[in-house]
Amino acid sequence: MALYTTDLLILGSGPAGYTAGIYAARAGISVTIVSGNQEGGQLTMTSAIENFPGFEEISGFELMDKMKNQAVKLGVQFVNDYIVEVDFAHRPFVCSSENGHSYKAKAVIIATGSSAKWLNLESEKKFLGYGVSACATCDGFFYRGRTVVVVGGGNSAVAEALYLATLADRVILVHRRHQLRADKILQDRVKENRKIVVEWDSVVEEILGVDEPKKVTGIRVRNVETDATKVINADGVFVAVGHQPNTEIFKGNLVLDSKGYIVTHANCSATDVEGVFAAGDVKDPKYKQAVISAGSGAIAAMDAIEYLDSVA
Ligand SMILES: Cc1cc2nc3c(=O)[nH]c(=O)nc-3n(C[C@H](O)[C@H](O)[C@H](O)COP(=O)(O)OP(=O)(O)OC[C@H]3O[C@@H](n4cnc5c(N)ncnc54)[C@H](O)[C@@H]3O)c2cc1C
């Protein structure tokens, strides 16, 4: 059991956490990043990124490795650990980890991201990054002129289907009910869009594919009314059944919105606890993109530097 003492503690090693670390370290502050259970964050789940400026194409793993190396080279201390409890009521702040370590810090940046909700199918795990995605903005481009499935019936699923219809030839929206939950205006757009068909009352039982080269070829769906199953051919499957911010440990410590996202003051990263800042997907129910999280990390670092100067 170790005690780490640092000026700035950053929780999370996604684009927000690493960028915050890079900015803060360059300001001469002692910085510790705790990686969490997914070192590199969500981007490590994708094999090709084409929308991070400066890289025409790069794998998520490689991009995050570069960010980590940059942060470590600038003097950021990196610890592979997972925080399970925080005390923001006393100063210095204390965060405790599953390994029994304690982290004491004058300021904290929370960059614990969010997790896409999945269907929890074995085949979904198998083809994740090989035709299965949770992000149309990120991966839709790879399906120009092809057939894709979107799973879900809320605003995000419908928005993803409409977006994908601008790229793909055919979009099949699979929804387990007979009525979409999305706003009426979005529902109307789906009805009007000739490229989108809705597979009502249906659940995905399996994502089908081949191994060499590894790729999705379709899905098997079951109609919940009739119990009948059928195969739908498709090149990609976008799961759009929601996101969950990773904020369980902050409940009762910070103000969260109704969906669990950390609430920050307008135009900055400050939370309701002075000295605690939030960056990236953990505070962003809408945009959820790497470049935006990186920018958000830079903002949080600049806010934290200003705060640390003010209490020095
Ligand atoms: C399959 C997929 C493909 C994507 N493709 C693209 C793309 O092509 N382009 C793009 O711009 N965006 C893409 N995205 C979205 C992008 O990955 C996210 O917007 C971005 O990673 C968010 O960055 P973040 O730093 O806020 O959080 P995350 O990347 O979610 O990182 C969160 C970090 O917090 C850590 N953590 C969580 N809980 C704790 C804890 N208790 N203690 C310590 N650490 C903790 C995790 O281990 C992780 O390191 C994709 C997302 C997915 C799921």
Keywords:
312 residues, alpha/beta, 2 domains, seven-stranded mixed sheet, five-stranded parallel sheet, 25% helix
Over the alpha carbons, how many angstroms does the gyration radius reach?
Answer: 21 Å
The assigned CATH architecture of the largest domain is 3-Layer(bba) Sandwich
Count of domain modules: 2
* Distinct helical segment count: 7
Order of helices and strands: EHEHEEEEEHEHEHEHEEEEEEEH
Given as residue ranges, the uncertain stretches (5+ residues, pLDDT < 50) are: none
Give the bound compounds.
flavin-adenine dinucleotide
**CATH level-four homologous superfamily name of the largest domain:** FAD/NAD(P)-binding domain
**Strand tally, please?**
17
The CATH topology label of the largest domain is FAD/NAD(P)-binding domain
Rounded average pLDDT:
96
Q: Which structural class matches the secondary elements?
A: alpha/beta
Main sheet attributes: strand count, strand direction, barrel closure = 7 strands, mixed
Beta fraction of the residues? 25-35%
Choose one word for the global shape.
Answer: elongated
Span between termini: 29 Å
